[in-house]
Predict the structure.
Amino acid sequence: MKVKITGLLLIFSVVVGMAQQKKWTLEECVYYAVENNLTVKQFELDLENAALDKSDAIGALLPSLNSSLSASANTGLALDPTTNNLVSATIFSASGSMTSSVTLFDGLQNYNRIERAKLTAISSQYRLDDSKDDIKLSVANAYLNVLANKESLKVFKAQLAITEQDLKRTQDLVDSGVLPSGDLLQIEATAATQEQQMINAQNLILISKISLAQLLSITDYENFDIAEEEFDIPPSDILNNSAKVIFDKALTFRNDIQFALTGVELAQKDLEIAKGAKYPSVGAFINYNTRYSDQNNDPFTGEAIPFKDQLYINDGISYGAQMSIPIFNGWSVRNNIKRSQISIDIAQIEYERTKLQLETDVNQAYVNVTNFFKAFQAAEKTLEARTLAYQYSKERYDVGLMNAFEFSQSQSLVDNAEADLIRAKYDYIFRLKILEFYFGIPISLE
């Protein structure tokens, strides 16, 4: 038994360990966020509500069926409901009815409500998909921030390792009297600065991982981490298309555009519903009712008529139709029509504004890709130049032709250039993915 328990505990610890050691890829983060993000879940519930609205609208076309039952007792002078005679006694009576009614015509309002409910469901789906698009971009940006911060930490660690070697060599030169002790202090200050940079980088990694985990609705921040991967600039031919071509294609599939367009269609359907209130409404009904009284006696025998016999003796059916004609209602119908017309104009303006915003975003993304790539190329050249300058400074420092302060400044320039290159690389990758996303290309770092 102990062996079995030990085995189970071992398996459990392995499973837990594997879960804790999971490294998330970008694709896994995007998929998980879409499935678990709180904003997405809220819009999914809105979509379920839209389906219920459609069910309500369809149900309004169907006949209604309702029944009622009542029972009462009266003592003293009372009206017998079955004989309509006043009697002085204790009377127990009961009644029941069943009524069905249906709307035959209401200016097509119910029909238009069904069509509107269908549009609402479509609109809710577009809004849900649009929120997923936003989540994907946010996750990609947060993921790349973690990557950038991790890569910066690696650079700082490598720089500190080099500085520690320089520190040891400088210590030997100071001990031998070749260099003054001030040079050693300068190298020690450089090492302390790099250690501080490492601490800041570790903090940035933690903060960026928390931001990414929150997008995924994950609260176990300590065990959350992304895959240890390094990404080069991904190949892309997106710039072979003009910004106009990318915008025109985005108009055909972007969910924010479809959501705004559906808003116009919903406003138009609201206008049709409002106009339907100008017409007469026609309905029909049928009612079956029956009653019972313990004072209802057979006129020939004087005996009380049994309950079940009274149910069919006292029953009756009524049916009919009714028409409601709107004549004057305080201008409410007229004003609702005007409001609906205004809502159409508002929705149309919102649609045009959304298109204009998309065009602005696409053009900005297009310019960003070009500019950030140039910034990346410039950062590469800067790092190359700073590295050559550092190597030259190191050679001069090693032979005593440069003091420790000047050498430290040269190394700081390399440190800054490497950090700038990392940031420029991931800034460019993210802008590239945004532009590709507008062209319908899924987010991936491959």
User: Anything to note?
Assistant: The chain has ten helices and four strands. The chain has a mean pLDDT of 86. The longest strand covers residues 86-105.
